[in-house]
Each structure stands twice: as C-alpha cells, then as structure tokens.
Amino acid sequence: MVIPSDPDNEQARLQELYRLEILDTAYEEEFDEIVQLASRICQVPISLISLVGASRQWFKARVGLGATETSRDVSFCAHAIVQDSMLMEVEDAEQDERFQDNPLVTSDPHIRFYAGVPLVTRNGYKLGTLCVIDSKPNKLNEEQGFILKVLGSQIVKMLEMRIVNKESERQKLLIEQQNSTQNRILSIIAHDIRNPLSSMKQAMDMDAFNRLSIEDWSMIREQFVHQIDGTIDLLNNIVEWGMLQISGAAQVTERIHLKELVADKLDVARLTASLKNIELVNLADESIYLHTHPDILNFILRNLVSNAIKFTRKGTVSIFAQRESNKIHIAVNDTGVGISAEALQDLLSKRIAKTSYGTNNEKGSGLGLMLVQEFISSLQGSLEIESEMGKGTTVHLFLPG
Description:
Blueprint: H1 10-19, H2 29-42, E1 46-52, E2 56-63, E3 69-71, H3 76-80, E4 88-90, H4 103-106, E5 113-120, E6 126-134, H5 142-208, H6 214-247, E7 254-257, H7 258-274, E8 278-284, E9 289-292, H8 294-310, E10 315-324, E11 327-334, H9 341-349, E12 356-357, E13 363-364, H10 367-378, E14 382-388, E15 392-400
Parallel strand pairs: 8-10
Antiparallel strand pairs: 1-2, 1-6, 2-3, 4-5, 5-6, 7-9, 10-11, 11-15, 12-13, 14-15
Helix pairs in contact: 2-5, 5-6, 6-8, 7-8, 8-10
Protein name: Gaf sensor signal transduction histidine kinase
Keywords: Kinase, Transferase
Organism: Russula earlei
C-alpha cells in the first residue's frame, strides 16, 4: 500500500477547507441527492462526497456505506487530490500497487473499483472528491465520466453558496442587533433623558413668569443638580454600551492583571468617594491574571463601584478577588443602605430599569445594573447579589478562569 502524499499547497488547501465551514456538519438533503444520482448514473452501490482533512477523510454525504469517515492514510480520495487529472479511476484495486493491501480493499467495504472527481474551489484548491465505488472491477464510460465531473463542479458551487448564505445570515443578524441597539438607545433617551429635561424646562418657564419664590427656585435648582448628574451617568452608560455593541468589542480579548484594573477603577472614583467619607479598598489577589474583554470588564467594574458609592453614606467600598477552582471570583462590597428583597428581585429579573436615589439623592435609572448583567453573560460569567437593608450590599461576579 502507498500512503498518499500531501499536495504542495497543503496548508493553504486546509485553510480553504476550514473557511467553508463544512467539516462535521449535519445532513443536508441537496448533497445526499447528488451522491444518490452519481450512484445510479454510474451503476455502482457506493457514492461519497469525501472531504480530505489533515488526518482523515470525512463524508459530507454517502450512499451504500455506513462509515462517516476513515483515516487519510488509507484514503483513495487523498490520492485523487494530488494527481493532475480531473478524474482518477482505478479499475481493479487488487491489481494496483498503491491499493493492493489497503485495508479498504482487503476488508469491508472490499473496494475493487474507484472513480473520483476532485472538488476544486475557484481558488484552485482540491478539498476532496465526489467518488463512486464498487466491490467488483469496473470502468466508467465517457458519458458517466462527464456527468461525474459536472456533479463535482455543482458540489463546489453548493459549498461556496452555502458559505455565502451563512455570511449573509451573519450580516443580517448583525444588522438586526445594531438596529435593536439603536432602538433601545432611542427608547432610553425618550424616557429617561427627555423626562428630566422636560421638568427642568417647565421650571425655567415658570421662573420666567415669576411664578416661583426664591425659596422654591433654590430647592428646584438643587434638584436640577441631582437630575443632571443622573442624566450624565445615564448618558455615559448608554454611549459606552452602544459603542461596545456596535463595535463588536466582545471579539477582542487581552491578558489583564486584575489588581491593576481594580486599582484604576478605584482611583477614578476616589474623589466622589472622598466627598462622602467613603474609604475605597483593593483586596484583589496580586497573582490573578485573566484573558477577557477589557472594555467590557471596565464597564462592569465602573458601574458596580459607582453604585456602591451612590448607596453608601459613609463607610467602605471594597473589591475582593481570588481564584476559585476554574473561576475568578470578584466581589464588590459596600457598607451602604442595602436593597430590599422586592427591589432585588426586580433588578435580577431584568424586567425593570428602576429609578432609585442614592444617599445624597443622586438619581439613577437602574440601567447600569441591567447592562452589567447583560455583559457578564457575554463573558460566559454569572452574577449574584447579597444585600441586607441598613447593612450593605455585595455583588459577586464569577468569570471563567
């Protein structure tokens, strides 16, 4: 038996095969119909669409054979893709030194006759063959050989069209996701940003007509400050979330030193915390590195630290992190006012982006935590929240380690 050699362009050929995303895919009727047609036209019991991988040949469609793949070393098709001819025909394998003692000849399926047409892509790569097989010597006539070549050409066109359709579906899904993102942003803007701006305008209109006392205007102006702070926070979340969604940042990962990332997030929040006499503590394990999406993890930690400060009058906000088995456990803890069981259920259900106020009357929309839940899922992680009224809250994040 002669083991087939590799084509000169083997690495590029394999890349082309993988580009088509066809290996190990499910049954598809149109490919099955071709092997049935090839078997009938050539009047043989076995026909295969064989794709030659790095170490095996895998059958996309087959008739007359139970196996779904065989080793490349014993593959007739692996010989067919290295020869120049567009039809490799072996009339009697027992008389051919390449195949005489091949186990596919000496045992089941007892191949004696083989004819294979290489499947050649538009880039000139031979991915495998459309082949017909018999357990007795045989020879194709001119018409059968021609039809086999035509069917082989049709298979390649089907493979190419299949990947075009898949790419089209991916683009369609991307557009739908972007439209959904834009619609969601518009919905949030319409509700959570328009309303406070409308209230401020109404108050200004009343002041213009001298309908407000100095005391009323002083109180309303203080409310304006809180509303503006809440609106800016909301806008930051919307813009950051929208950019991450549209740019596809979830596709890019980096090796991150977690303690340094936590330190950066705490440094940014230090001024806000100091105004409320809150101590920020970094308890992340120095040794933890993880591969993840930095923009998304930044967003998550920024929101959790901001929320912890918002709902703490005085005390401590700390971030703890350690490796536990195959996971990274991050916990953001505060000594704040806590969350009621009912409010916590609403937050975790993702049904409600509930407006709430911090200990200094800071306005929030609840959107930040909803997006944190969405993003932690995109990292294949999970989130848990523990809280007790008057004692504080701990948000637990579990990320792949």
